[in-house]
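Hypothesis: this fold can be encoded by more than one sequence.
Test: take the structure tokens below, design a sequence, compare later.
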């Protein structure tokens, strides 16, 4: 272990692997593995590689946040969640606006498939949404709590509301940016320090770390340098919250 690597990866940092190639995703994950303890497998990667994407990350020592945002009739969500539990994913996202019965079916299915280890994260309001009314947020957080979710996905700006309505739920926060960086398509962003100080449980970190490789492929000559830059940024973010 080099002098710049910590004793263990930061369990509050999730790297976003929004690519369509599993080998590429593995290279990205390996670059940040010393500093980030969670890997986010989203729709794009899961559509390309399926459950193998989850297993590739758990084999590397990551806890996996399967950001698949399920929404369907309760029976289908419950059955699909049970299958996701068998992949080894630690968290699975389900839309809260699907209602209490659907959420509860997902919670029960995921628990069955994972032997009670995995938890559902209720998606409240997407960070790209423009309509972010407090009443809608409170209603969806309450649904997540009543259905037995382990946490919710919320913006940094919504953390205080979530803590008030359901302080026992984990708060998983996307839209993380370093000071001065672009917001891209995120309507609500925060720095790592601000989000952790506000009460975030896990930070979902994407383009702030992955920007240099996002447009590349596994065969790109610039990839080695891009992965090195990813590692540097992951290290900086981990250091920025290490004392919080």
């Amino acid at each position: 272990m080099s002098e710049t690597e910590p004793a263990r990866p930061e369990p509050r940092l999730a790297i976003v692997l929004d690519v369509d190639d599993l080998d590429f995703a593995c290279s990205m994950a390996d670059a940040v593995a010393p500093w980030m303890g969670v890997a986010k497998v989203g729709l794009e990667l899961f559509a390309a590689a399926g459950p193998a994407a989850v297993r590739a990350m758990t084999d590397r020592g990551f806890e996996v946040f399967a950001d698949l945002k399920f929404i369907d009739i309760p029976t289908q969500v419950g059955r699909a969640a049970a299958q996701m539990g068998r992949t080894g994913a630690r968290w699975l996202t389900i839309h809260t606006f699907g209602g209490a019965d659907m959420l509860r079916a997902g919670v029960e299915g995921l628990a069955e498939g994972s032997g009670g280890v995995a938890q559902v994260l209720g998606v409240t309001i997407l960070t790209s949404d423009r309509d972010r009314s407090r009443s809608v947020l409170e209603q969806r957080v309450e649904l997540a709590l009543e259905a037995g979710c382990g946490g919710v996905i919320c913006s940094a700006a919504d953390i205080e509301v979530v803590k008030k309505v359901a302080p026992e739920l984990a708060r998983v926060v996307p839209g993380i940016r370093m000071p001065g960086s672009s917001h891209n398509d995120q309507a609500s962003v925060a720095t790592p320090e601000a989000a952790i100080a506000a009460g975030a449980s896990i930070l979902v970190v994407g383009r702030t770390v992955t920007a240099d490789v996002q447009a590349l492929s596994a065969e790109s000559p610039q990839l080695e340098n891009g992965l090195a830059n990813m590692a540097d940024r992951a290290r900086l973010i981990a250091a920025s919250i290490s004392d919080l």
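The domain at 10-241 is CATH 3.20.20.70 (TIM Barrel). The radius of gyration is 17 Å.
Hypothesis status: open.
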